[in-house]
Design a protein that fits this description.
Layout lengths: L1 E3 L1 H10 L5 E5 L3 H15 L5 H4 E5 L5 H9 L8 E6 L6 H5 L2 H5 L5 E7 L7 H9 L1 E4 L8 H11 L3 E2 L1 H11 L3 H15 L4 E2 L1 H7 L2 H15 L3 H13 L4 H23 L4 H8 L6 H8 L4 H20 L4 H12 L1
Parallel strand pairs: 1-6, 2-5, 2-6, 3-4, 4-5, 7-8
Helix pairs in contact: 1-2, 8-9, 8-10, 9-11, 12-13, 12-14, 13-18, 14-15, 14-16, 14-17, 17-18
């Protein structure tokens, strides 16, 4: 299997024509769209895009119809582009309709499939592994988010201070689409100044969002079971995904763990904040919570976090039940 990341895809497209078959796989929609735009820019001309570009969703369009689109000849262009989104929703029979396109890709069409994940045991996976360029677009790790904020801000002409980036990560989470949207708001807010500080982030990020996030994580930090369950329900009701909520909780637990470790190492003030990855003005708030968390409790909770994460991604039980169960076990 040929596996690239977004940067490798970008570098390759700068010097080579697009390949005939790509799989964009991962749980970060923003990165998938970034990859699609890179491929689109190299595959079809703006002047003929209406004739040579098709985008379909697996839940709406049968695979056989997509196959017909892939096999069409380009019009007034050397190449056309066909995108089939969310193909992890396809049934085995649907996949069979696409096998000819995998075994013998159409050289005048770039065919792109998007998904979160595919079953490695299936025949279609083995065919794609053999014939497709696989682009891995997973959500960045928590410690990579400040660098992403710096990069996305740079693309918009913004210079985001490190403390402001840490605060954005705390408020917005690890979803790059939401981070990009907040940076768009910041660009309008700061105008020609272009410098983004903590005060700017506090002024722009939705107060309701901030309060809901802190209500949940602070309730867990203080081991307040009733408040945590209520805050979780409120957060999910306002559109937060279960996976996103768990990511916020996991980050909060890591911060508490890092603070306790930093204290044992004799760190204080800015050095302790750097160790935990938090703005200094939030230090007192977090330190008040560390008193309720022994090392044994933190170790046990991290194990429960891992179990909950696996259950969210694989269990047929409704996701909110697993989060409620996490709170009942840890608070």
């Amino acid at each position: 299997m040929v596996t690239w990341d977004l940067r490798k895809l970008q570098q390759r497209l700068e010097t080579h024509a697009p390949s005939m078959l790509y799989v964009l796989a991962g749980d970060e929609p923003f990165l998938q769209e970034e990859a699609l735009q890179l491929i689109k820019a190299k595959s079809v001309d703006a002047g003929t895009i209406d004739f040579n570009y098709d985008s379909f969703y697996a839940g709406d369009v049968k695979a056989i119809q997509v196959k017909d689109a892939v096999q069409m000849l380009p019009m007034m262009s050397p190449r056309r582009l066909v995108v089939y989104r969310n193909v992890d929703e396809l049934k085995d029979k649907d996949w069979e309709d696409l096998f000819d396109l995998f075994d013998a890709p159409i050289d005048s069409t770039t065919f792109v499939l998007t998904c979160e994940n595919l079953d490695k045991r299936k025949r279609y996976y083995k065919k794609l592994a053999e014939h497709a360029i696989w682009v891995d677009l997973k959500r960045p790790y928590d410690n990579q988010i400040p660098d992403w904020i710096d990069y996305l801000g740079f693309r918009k002409g913004l210079k985001v201070s490190r403390e402001a980036a840490q605060l954005m990560k705390q408020f917005v989470g690890v979803n790059l689409t939401e981070i990009n949207n907040e940076l768009e708001k910041l660009k309008s807010y700061v105008g020609e100044r272009n410098q983004v500080g903590v005060e700017d982030v506090l002024a722009i990020v939705s107060r309701a969002r901030v309060d809901r996030i802190f209500d949940l994580t602070d309730a867990i930090g203080h081991a307040d079971k009733a408040a945590a369950l209520h805050s979780l329900a409120n957060l999910l009701e306002h559109g937060q995904s279960e996976v996103g909520a768990l990511a916020m909780i996991a980050r909060h637990i890591r911060i508490l763990s890092n603070l306790k470790e930093g204290q044992r190492d004799g760190l204080t003030g800015p050095k302790l904040c750097a160790k935990a990855g938090i703005p200094q003005f939030l230090l007192t708030q977090y330190m008040s919570q560390t008193k309720a968390w022994s090392d044994d409790k933190l170790t046990k909770t991290i194990g429960i976090l891992h179990d909950t994460d696996r259950a969210l991604k694989s269990s047929s039980i409704p996701s909110h039940v697993w989060l409620e169960n996490f709170i009942l076990k840890t608070c």
